[in-house]
Amino acid sequence: MTAPRVRRIHPQKFALWVGIISMTMLFSAFTSAYIVRKSAGNWLSFPLPDAFFYSTGVILSSSILLHMAYKAFVKENYQLFRGLGIASSVLGIVFLILQYQGWIALNDIGVFLHTNQSSSFLGVMLLAHSFHLVGGLAALSIVLTYALRKKTLKLTPKRQLRMELVCTFWHFVDILWLYIIVFILIQQ
Amino acid sequence: MADISVTDQDLHHGEDHGDHGHDDHHGDKYQSSFIDRYLFSMDHKTIAKQFLMTGMFWAVIGAGMSIIFRLQLGFPDADLSWLQPLLGGWIDINPSTGVGSLNPDFYYALVTMHGTIIVFFVLTAGLSGTFSNLLIPLQIGARDMASPMLNMFSYWFFFLSGVVMFASLFLNTGPFSGGWTAYPPLSELPQASDGSKAGMTLWLLSLVLFVVSVLLGGINYITTILNMRTKGMSMFRMPLTIWAFLVTAIIGLLSFPVIASGFFMVLFDRALGTSFFLNEIYVAGEALTERVGGSAILFQHLFWFLGHPEVYIIILPAMGIVSEVLSVHSRKPIFGYKAMVFSILAIAVLSFLVWAHHMFMTGMNPFVANIFVLFTLIIAVPSAVKVFNWIATIWGGNLRFNTPLLFAIGFVSLFISGGLTGLFLGNAAIDIQQHDTYFVVAHFHVVMGVAAFFGMFAGVYHWFPRMFGRFMNETLGKIHFWGTLIGAYAIFGPMHYLGMAGVPRRYYSFDTFSAFADFDMMNKFMTIAAIVVFLIQILFLINFFYSIYKGKKQTTMNPWEATTLEWTAPINAGHGNWPGAIPHVHRWPYDLSRYEDRDFVPQTEPLAEGEIDGGH
Asked: Which of B9, B256, B586 sits opposite A158 (nearest CB)?
């Protein structure tokens, strides 16, 4: 019991994971309520517009690019890091636009937020997820602005940590969307 | 998440290799000006005081509201026109007689606000916010929280939430009045009542901000406890306070997001025309044909999935504080340390499996109700283990009957009284008779209202020197204790009787119910007792603020002769807590009266050769 304490994980990284657990609870509450409500009947089924599948591809590629950007950052290849980082955040914005397009496509076939609980639940989850994505974009843009302002960038442990935090959160938001869309597809 | 907390890196620099952090106690690079030091402070000790004082402000408001509605219940015919300068239009003056009476709508607003304020602002933020902040870094041996900045945000989100709620009190249509549980449809349809208009919008906004505050705080508490303990502070060497704060934060982190989802859906229903929780509603004879398909019961599930763990979020910190105070002031190690830890954990797990016992009467399947009855009654087991251990701790101890100990013993007394009535309510069959009566009100006020306040008072009196370097007045403290204890039983004892007789809660007046006409005297008695108890709390406030400036000065670093780390830091320690290196820990926190020649052995003292650590 007297063995010296070994710090395996940085406190901030740990804090992020704790935060991720709590965000996961938010969405599991939405999906649990979804299941309960659906089982009560009077549930409108509608096909998901293509835009949501495109956006899934976009956010997945964005995550991959960000991971590559991180690798480039660690290898101190800043040209590549900047390019990949920007590409990744642009894809994030494209994702948001596609989500909006998807919602408009639903409206075009007569499915609005208040049409039925099925569309209401989709709407509330889309919005809550988009808020999280905007948070991720904000964090990413801070890192990127910093990287773009400096001509040369030195790799410090602090910067690496910051980058890791942003990556973890970004991948989480990505997986969160996968969870939502797979959940809805299974429920249909 | 990138920029949230760069500061702690610098603050905790080199703590692994014996640092000599902060030579200047009164200001470092994070708190060099008045604003940094007292307002937007990142020092956990200052933030703790901010939480405490904000909590006290809300306690006065919340308790004051209860006095006003108790006046209505005890003296329904009294002339309340003297309250008009304070309440304005909420006092209806009869034009012919000139007699003022409380507006019924405002009565409901007062009941609602009393619940919301005491549960969330006082007993969650004021209790857990204060003591988690004060004690976590000090008792585990850390310079501050993992992220002092998030910690500061946690307080200011709470403050902002309070500002929004406070503003709602001044609305023309009044604050929300549909009960602190905010059940739809009352909480969703503005046409349902005046309080469901702008008051409810502000209520929701305030509580969403509050959830953010709790989550930011909780993330920090968990991270700090699990990652920043000093050398030698293994999990089973942590004081029970820290165990309680850790588990409280975990419960909060898992349950508050769920109610947040419920709040979002209520917001959608209110603002965007969805019908998550609405179905076949008639308001004033008019059918809301557009709002169909939802389920109001679904909201209750989401609410109580938070709501019940919330009860433990309130009571666990109080339990931790009481364990510590009982042990130190009876000069005995806590009885069954590990049993205490495992009881806390068991309570935490079970707290997520009992929520539907708040909903027995919503038409749920009786077989489902049985499962919840079972888990509810099982919670009595770890709770009883704790009670047994507290009594065994003081049994045969060398008790110092000072105010902190008295309040801690009072806590145990109240927890037993209130816990026993829980056994009745937890039973679905008995609940058919008891639900929504004053029996429920008496039960939860005793077991988690007054009891949690007693835990908080024990903590305030015990750690006051740690906060302000002075002591509170003992005589006033004892008057405070006896007055509050006797007064609390005087209020809530008869209330059980009212409940058993079937008197329903939340009624503005009983004058049209002849069955309840016999309880006038009892209601008067409870109201008078409530006023007396309220006045005694004013005494506490005077004692508190007077002692900050004029209290007896703390002359030794460890006035209670406690073993834990918070008493190894200098009196009025600055940011960073220890001027030199952080102390290391070599033993469990309860080495009291272990050796004949020594009253206590601090955690920092190495084990002698052949000595076995106490907790194992």
From this structure: B9
